[in-house]
Design the sequence.
């Protein structure tokens, strides 16, 4: 009996022991997971030399958490404690409250501690997430600019107002929770008794509740007072900032409401002392009614009776405030606006004054030639190039040459044996760069490379070609070995493209944490969920682990305060391949400046539109230029805009992490360019804010728009991207590497689109005294200068062009139209569009076969840009283009182009150019005759013209084989 009765106790103790062991193991596992995550972060930052960035964030997060946790927990605990301690000891409670007390009393001590701790944790986590607001407040830097309404420095709105409003919001939430907890406690323990319509409150309960209510109302008074200043960053529908109604009704009304709230708070204090609730309740009602009348009704009356009938005049001074602040906040206050009376007639020799610009016109489209680079320079299936290549410039001999450049990165999925060993230890890096002249092509339409091959050879000199850190690098690789060890990393194929031999390599840089003990190996095995990392004998004490290898990721981690440009580009600098990253300091709290959603504003053909944009800005500066070494991943941050107050603030927070721009080598500086995302944001602002007269701004009668990309399908086209070109902008002294975009009138409906040119925006992208200089060429309103959409339509509908395109598309080929470039040369606007032809075969790639050009309403379509310009400008343009060496290639548009070498085509084929031109001219004449015949109703003449058209096209087909 006794043993039987003891059995359940034994089983119970056994189950308890197992549960305790499981709980301990769970805590240990979770603890080690957390430790491994923190430990690997320390190793990563320490190896890169940015450990203070991590520790500063940790200190700030912990401090903010403790502030939120302690403040919430202490206030809530004190509220419950005071309510319980002051409970009536001999109060007779009703039966229902007795039952509540019976349930709650056993848990009271736990609740008094647990509830404040639990809510404190939630509030602490929330405050910790706002660490950046706090550290900026305590390290704030003056802007040296004041707002036009209150005369306060802009730093008040950027740093102080968000901090103060955050404190008030958190304090209000804590006090409200404490108020509810006090009321509940007093009710449960008899301090508050409800008998029908009668409510009895004990003296202690009255004092606590009244004082808590007074504190809460006082906080609301502060919040209402701060709301005055917040009107300067609110969007009122026309512009951002305080408008007439805000200044004359809203702001004074908020000051009055804040005063009423303070009075109500005083009345609650009086109630705590004298015990009468009538006055604070009346005051609370007065506050509510006043908020409706003063905060809503009165401003609506002012808006309707004063603003609506006279909006253009009464809002003028506030619109001017918005224009001035917006242009300053986006760096547009020094823009050079010049009228440009563009001519539309092409005359011989018109490009003579623009010879340098003409020689540098880029005919390679970086979005189309990626396939060509891949077919000609990928070499092996385990290499790849980006789908959109980058445009830079290099000094070749005595000239600066626009260049289309790409990094040959690793593509692990292309290698046949997919194993952890191969993916982690063998295939670890890409190799070399490929670069082509932007303004040249070979006679068969291929890019003319200035750097190519494996190993790389060309004009860029000797450099470290290995790419361990890039835009497509693997998640992690393990590299390095003891001195004298046999190399196991695949370097590059040797012995020719078809050879199976390859060169091996051992990484000898300092690119990642060293795995020199079992704790590090275990931590990374957990991080990357790989037991092989721990078990493989190829992972030695000399091994390094490389991860977080994308340039944007690395810069974002070491500079969390920066917003990064979406277009990272490579450059060969000082014997290394480096990735150049542009970093912005931003805020959305600049008074009177228009707010934009950054990721939506920069969306275009090559930059996707985000699903949920959450990056509002109304101030931006390109404050930092960053580099990431493609070999060892080292990161350097350079202070580019040393006058930016936001950067100065972050330099106080993270001292010694940003180097001066003077530390950049001359070769690195030469590859700096004006960033595309900043330019796109500025062009979006100038769509409206190029107007500086308040009345015209309000009317919106001169609003502009960025044209849609005319090379894309009309239903899915996005904004045309800006393009980098070397050009001499009208009014400037010499050519410079430049980024540009165009404007057309803003249409109210899709059917009202008018693609005529209204403006031409450029930014000097070359470092130097004119770096970042913005120039806006404004086109005359009374003249019609074709915009990109009209020009593309002219290209598509021109009879001769259509005929030649039809010939190019005959058989198994397709035509691809490249980017449509616009250049202010010859006194007008020149449009240039390369035309590529690609076979539909499996190994096809685009070849540049023709170039379209337009000036005014005149169009030319020739084999080379140089020939096309001469035809367009009456036989002699007055300047040579860069592709003169490709003239007279005699290419056969009927032969399948764009196939890998040896895939097709007829060598030595030639065309009877004269006969072909005659056939095409006859076709065009017959087409015109047929159109006229149909207009005249002469069906016989129309039939005869049809026959002549058929004869002409048959002759053209015979000529082209």
Sequence:
């Amino acid at each position: 009996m006794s043993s039987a009765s003891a059995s359940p106790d034994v089983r119970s103790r056994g189950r308890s022991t197992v549960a305790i062991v499981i709980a301990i193991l769970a805590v240990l596992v979770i603890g080690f997971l957390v430790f491994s995550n923190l430990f690997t972060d320390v190793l990563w930052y320490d190896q890169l030399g940015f450990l203070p960035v991590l520790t500063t964030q940790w200190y700030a997060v912990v401090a903010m958490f403790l502030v939120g946790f302690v403040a919430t927990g202490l206030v809530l605990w004190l509220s419950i404690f005071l309510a319980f301690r002051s409970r009536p000891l001999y109060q007779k409670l009703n039966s229902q409250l007795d039952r509540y007390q019976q349930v709650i009393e056993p848990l009271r001590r736990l609740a008094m501690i647990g509830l404040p701790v639990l809510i404190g944790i939630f509030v602490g986590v929330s405050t910790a997430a706002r660490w950046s607001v706090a550290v900026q407040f305590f390290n704030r830097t003056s802007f040296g600019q004041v707002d036009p309404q209150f005369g306060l420095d802009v730093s008040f709105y950027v740093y102080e107002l968000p901090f103060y409003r955050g404190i008030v919001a958190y304090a209000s939430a804590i006090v409200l929770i404490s108020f509810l907890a006090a009321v509940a406690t007093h009710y449960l323990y008899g301090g508050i008794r409800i008998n029908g319509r009668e409510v009895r409150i004990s003296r202690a309960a009255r004092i606590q509740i009244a004082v808590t209510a007074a504190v809460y109302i006082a906080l609301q008074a502060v919040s209402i007072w701060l709301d005055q200043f917040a009107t300067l960053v609110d969007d009122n529908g026309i512009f951002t900032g305080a408008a007439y109604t805000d200044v004359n009704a809203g702001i004074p009304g908020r000051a009055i409401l804040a005063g009423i709230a303070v009075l109500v708070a005083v009345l609650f204090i009086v109630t705590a002392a004298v015990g009468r609730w009538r006055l604070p309740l009346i005051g609370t009602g007065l506050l509510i009614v006043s908020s409706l009348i003063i905060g809503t009704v009165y401003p609506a009356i002012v808006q309707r009776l004063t603003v609506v009938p006279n909006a253009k005049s009464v809002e003028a001074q506030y619109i001017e405030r918005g224009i001035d602040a917006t242009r300053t906040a986006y760096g547009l206050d020094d823009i050079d606006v010049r009228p440009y009376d563009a001519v539309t007639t092409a005359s011989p020799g018109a490009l003579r004054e623009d010879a340098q610009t003409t020689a540098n016109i880029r005919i390679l489209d970086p979005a189309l030639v990626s396939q060509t680079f891949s077919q000609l320079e990928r070499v092996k299936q385990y290499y790849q190039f980006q789908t959109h290549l980058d445009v830079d410039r290099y000094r070749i001999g005595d000239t600066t040459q626009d260049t289309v450049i790409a990094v040959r990165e690793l593509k692990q999925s292309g290698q046949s044996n997919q194993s952890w060993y191969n993916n982690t230890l063998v295939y670890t890096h890409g190799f070399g760069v490929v670069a082509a002249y932007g303004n040249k092509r070979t006679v068969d339409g291929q890019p003319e490379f200035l750097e190519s091959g494996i190993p790389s050879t060309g004009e860029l000199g000797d450099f470290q070609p290995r790419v361990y850190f890039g835009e497509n690098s693997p998640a992690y690789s393990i590299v390095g070995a003891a001195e004298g060890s046999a190399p196991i990393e695949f370097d590059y194929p040797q012995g020719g493209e078809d050879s199976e031999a390859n060169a091996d390599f051992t990484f000898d840089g300092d690119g990642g944490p060293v795995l020199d003990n079992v704790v590090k190996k275990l931590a990374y095995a957990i991080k990357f969920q790989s037991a092989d990392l721990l078990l493989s004998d190829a992972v030695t004490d000399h091994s390094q682990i490389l991860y977080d290898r994308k340039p944007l990721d690395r810069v974002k981690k070491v500079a969390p305060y920066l917003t990064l440009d979406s277009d990272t580009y490579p450059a060969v600098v000082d014997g290394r391949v480096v990735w150049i990253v542009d970093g912005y300091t931003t805020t959305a709290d600049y008074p009177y400046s228009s707010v934009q959603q950054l990721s939506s504003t920069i969306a275009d053909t090559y930059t996707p539109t985000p699903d949920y944009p959450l990056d509002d800005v109304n101030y931006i500066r390109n404050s930092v230029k960053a580099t990431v070494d493609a070999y060892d991943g080292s990161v350097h941050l350079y202070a580019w805009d040393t006058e930016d107050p936001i950067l100065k603030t972050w330099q106080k927070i993270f001292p010694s992490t940003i180097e001066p721009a003077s530390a950049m080598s001359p070769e690195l500086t030469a590859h700096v360019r004006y960033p595309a995302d900043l330019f796109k944001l500025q062009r979006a602002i100038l769509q409206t804010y190029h107007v500086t007269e308040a009345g015209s701004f309000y009317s919106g009668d001169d609003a502009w728009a960025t044209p849609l990309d005319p090379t894309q399908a009309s239903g899915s086209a996005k904004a045309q991207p800006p393009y980098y070109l070397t050009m001499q902008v009208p009014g400037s002294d010499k050519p410079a590497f430049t980024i540009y975009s165009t404007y057309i009138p803003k249409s109210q409906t899709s059917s009202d689109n008018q693609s005529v040119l209204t403006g031409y925006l450029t930014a000097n992208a070359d470092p130097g005294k004119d770096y970042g200089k913005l120039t806006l060429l404004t086109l005359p309103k009374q003249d019609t200068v074709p915009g990109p959409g009209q020009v593309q339509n002219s290209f598509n509908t021109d009879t001769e062009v259509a005929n030649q395109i039809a010939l190019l598309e005959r058989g198994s080929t397709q035509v691809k139209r490249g980017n449509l470039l616009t250049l202010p040369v010859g006194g007008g606007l020149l449009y240039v569009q390369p035309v590529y032809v690609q076979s539909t075969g499996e190994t096809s790639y685009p070849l540049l076969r023709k170039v379209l050009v337009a000036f005014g309403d005149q169009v030319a379509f020739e084999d080379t840009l140089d020939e096309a310009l001469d035809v367009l400008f009456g036989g002699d343009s007055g300047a040579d283009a860069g592709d003169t060496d490709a003239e007279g290639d005699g290419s056969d548009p009927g032969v399948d182009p764009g196939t890998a070498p040896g895939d097709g085509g007829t060598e030595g084929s030639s065309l009877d150019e004269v006969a072909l031109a005659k056939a095409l001219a006859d076709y065009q004449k017959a087409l015109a005759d047929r159109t006229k015949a149909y207009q005249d109703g002469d069906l016989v003449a129309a039939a005869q013209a049809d026959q002549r058209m058929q004869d002409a096209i048959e002759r053209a087909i015979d000529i082209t084989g």
Remarks:
- The two ends are 109 Å apart (CA to CA).
- Residues 1-5, 888-911 have pLDDT under 50 and may be disordered.
